[in-house]
């Protein structure tokens, strides 16, 4: 009578993608039949002077792949377009806890869109008569403008400028 060997369950591992190719790696891994999780977050960006919500990787150049240690074929990972390597310590890939993956999923499901600028943040004006001045972000004024506080003659003065003329201060 043969004893059945227990089937090893799949574990999550970390894949490092080539720079700016995480989405390409994700698509190519999924085409090969792997289960992949690429956590993304909604961020606000200023494009053409207006705020827009865009999706960005939570962990730049990293994604998760579900593999069974002695059952799945890991060799195609090395030659998959967009993939740099399987993250390992020594020569041994270290699995990531299922609890951690589930926690990331839950947090991202309830995460609000991250705004471009936060109240109190120091910004640099990069256009117009106030070019090269630092300003403190107060609030958004519509979709394409911001209310700022700028020191003029030793006093904070409120001004409204287009978002396209603002940048994060260095």
TrEMBL record:
Every NusG-like N-terminal domain range: 9-108
Gene Ontology BP, a term: transcription antitermination
Protein name listed in UniProt: Transcriptional acivator RfaH
Keyword Transcription: yes
Transcription regulation in keyword set: yes
Cellular component GO terms, alphabetical: cytosol
Keyword terms: Transcription, Transcription antitermination, Transcription regulation
Source species: Thiocapsa marina 5811
Lineage: Bacteria, Pseudomonadati, Pseudomonadota, Gammaproteobacteria, Chromatiales
């Amino acid at each position: 009578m043969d004893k059945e060997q227990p089937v090893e369950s799949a574990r999550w591992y970390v894949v490092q993608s080539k720079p700016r190719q995480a989405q390409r790696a994700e698509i190519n891994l999924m085409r090969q039949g792997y289960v992949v999780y690429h956590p993304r977050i909604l961020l606000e960006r200023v494009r053409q002077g207006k705020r827009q919500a865009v999706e960005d990787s939570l962990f730049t150049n990293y994604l998760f792949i579900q593999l069974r240690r002695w059952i799945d074929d890991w060799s195609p990972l090395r030659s998959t377009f967009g993939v740099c390597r399987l993250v390992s310590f020594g020569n041994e890939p270290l699995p990531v806890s299922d609890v951690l993956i589930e926690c990331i999923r839950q947090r991202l499901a309830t995460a609000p869109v991250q705004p471009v600028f936060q109240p109190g943040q120091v910004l640099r004006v990069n256009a117009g008569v106030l070019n090269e001045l630092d300003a403190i972000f107060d609030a958004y004024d519509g979709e394409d403008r911001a209310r700022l506080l700028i020191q003029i003659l030793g006093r904070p003065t409120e001004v409204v400028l287009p978002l396209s003329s603002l940048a994060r201060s260095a």
